[in-house]
């Protein structure tokens, strides 16, 4: 778990109230690492002439290893190495990266015919199989890792970790879920499910500002992904409901006049914010049934926003959608 875990202060002193154990093995940090395979520290290391056989040749019999030949005086090396490390972490176990300073350990580079640096040579099954020289673009590094290791991101380990986080949330172990989401984002920072999951946990904990910050980490091309859009809708609905006032007032108005659609609509908004999804949906459905013209079919439009915020497979969504279909098409 990184030191900048957004949940460090939020839940750190309250861990006792999240005591439910998820059977995923080990401590919170170990559970997250187990779900993701190897930790970043295991994926990247420096080696020496004496350690080359074990770190590269033998290790490449288990999985592909990239060897980065570099030197402290090499400007292009300083450009390439951070990109290499980022790509290897994002691949989350597809390959390992071993770095060798040729000033301190020149013999291996000489034996492999390395004539200029930076140079990257890939080893598989104990043998060099491919490589490149120079500070190539990040996209080219990703393609090289894909060719050597078979994938560049989104490995099965990430899917397993996300499943473990969902299991932890379902069991009430919020801290573990937060730890796993954060661990996923360390290795695969563009994972939308982890961004949405961590953002939702922060929002549910009352930290709307923190949730916004997490949402801002989504890559531009994926900012409108359904999971992120659903969280934004949920946050907007909660903000709208918070401005409506006391639900008892709307209940009093409805008792006096069941056709007070605005009171019913506002009550539904508050009920949704309180997690009373079925009641909220039923109130909006009652308006749809009574008067489709009210507020330009505003009750139906709001119900569709609820569906987006709840998720298409949520039980309340499915039940309300069936009722809505019955009203519209019967």
UniProtKB/TrEMBL annotation:
Biological processes, Gene Ontology terms: cell redox homeostasis; response to stress
Xref: InterPro entries: Thioredoxin (IPR005746), Thioredoxin-like_sf (IPR036249), Thioredoxin_CS (IPR017937), Thioredoxin_domain (IPR013766), TPR-like_helical_dom_sf (IPR011990)
Any one annotated GO CC term: cytosol
A Pfam family: Thioredoxin
A single MF term (Gene Ontology): protein-disulfide reductase activity
Domain Thioredoxin: 34-150
This protein's UniProt keywords: Disulfide bond, Electron transport, Redox-active center, Transport
Entry-linked CDD domains: TRX_family
Family: Belongs to the thioredoxin family.
Protein name per UniProt: Thioredoxin
Gene name of the encoded protein: trxA
